[in-house]
Amino acid sequence: MVLMKTTLEIPDELYRQVKAKSALEGRRVREVTISLYENWLRGGGTAAQQKTEATNWLDDLMKHSMPAGLPGPTVREILEEDRNRLEPKQQAS
């Protein structure tokens, strides 16, 4: 495989977050970047894959940003309620 070098200008904070998450996953930033480009060229995956990725992202976000045991509905419950209101589930025939 022939590699092309390029320079990207991205916000410092974004790069720090990418670098930190890459390190936690034992991946290099270059590997993550290549994976993102490949996924983008493929069209981002199927709708089911995108929904799974979005759900995983939301789950991960909620683990790190919301204290447990707060009263009332969770962000996930609110989003699910809105999704069901906007995209009613199709009934089996």
How do the helices and strands line up, and which of them pair or pack?
Layout: H1 12-24, H2 29-41, H3 47-65, H4 75-86
Report on this model:
This protein is 61% helix and 0% strand. The chain has helices spanning 12-24, 29-41, 47-65, 75-86. The mean pLDDT is 78. It is mainly alpha-helical and 93 residues long. The longest helix has 19 residues, at 47-65. The termini are far apart. The chain is built from 4 helices and no strands.
- Secondary structure category: mainly alpha
For the secondary structure, the number of strands is 0
Residue fraction in strands: under 5%
How far apart, in Å, are the first and last alpha carbons?
Answer: 50 Å
How does the overall form come out from the CA principal axes?
Answer: extended
Strand and helix order = HHHH
